Amino acid sequence: MSVKPRGAGFEAYVTDSKTGKRRRKTLPTYAEAVQWEAETKLALAAGSDLPRKPSVNSWTFETALQKTYDAEWRGTKAEDSAMKNANMVMNFFGKDCSLSVINTERVQDLVNHLRNEVGNSNGTINRKLAALSKILKYAWKCERLDKLPYIPRQKESVTKERFLSLPEEEAIVKTLRQLDRDDIADLVIFQLDTGARIGETLKLTGDACTPKQVTFYDTKNHKDHVVPLTPRVSQIISKRLEVFGDGKIFPGLTYEKIRYEFVRALQINQIDDHAVTIHTLRHTFASRLVQRGVSIQTVSKLMNHSSLQVTMRYAKLAPSNLTDAISVLSSGSVTVA
What we know:
The chain is mainly alpha-helical. It has 14 helices and five strands. The strands form two sheets. The protein has a three-stranded antiparallel β-sheet with strand order 1-2-3, covered by helices on one side.
């Protein structure tokens, strides 16, 4: 590392491998000198403009991340995913990076890195950019950043929703039972017939269940949510209440364990495990209801969606029902001469 004390500050220098010219900069703190050195090396390698002197008032990325976590993410449902994305961004810029040197050009470097070297999709890149944006905006609110860079959000492709057919459902459940994973087979049926979010299912306890209905308390939109049970799920719940009482209905299961066995069952049955995920079970619940004539308003309530607009993406699955509705207008109407 080419950083050493100089006067009241620290001097950093970088040698341009192409020209042999040495670049020098004296900065007030060691962290700023280290950051300038790293940014200068990156800029020379990319053939871009050299970094400006970091603002003395600016936070380092590590400090900004911790401050943002305490103020915005701690204790929220997005805590784990937000911190995971934020830490990956920090790994690129460096924990000692001054926020003041993160401009639009540097953000685009991050995007290129995530796409070309890490292999992230545009959707995944956008999740990381959202975490970066939150950190920068919080620093700006705290007057630790003079201005916000433009963050180029990536265009995400519109993908067709994937739903399970009845034969696919039967094959998956049968395979899970053959693999001696009755607990996950029961959970798959539960998801298909309740439309619950997997996180809500894993937190469900016996004292929130009866043979006729279950109540989810800790939900995504913070509203208690009651779902009536189909006969087969009622049977599963009754069986599990006898064994586990008021404890968790699906004890010992984590998302990772469920996903591993679920993907195994998909692969055994040659079902595309990239198109079908655990969340597909929730989509299947909604699609089956709509296809069988249940109103969008009712489906929205059963799905516990925050608004009817979220449920409207399933409306296209019931074209025959829309035709039947319009046909009512013909009843008793005057015929055209």
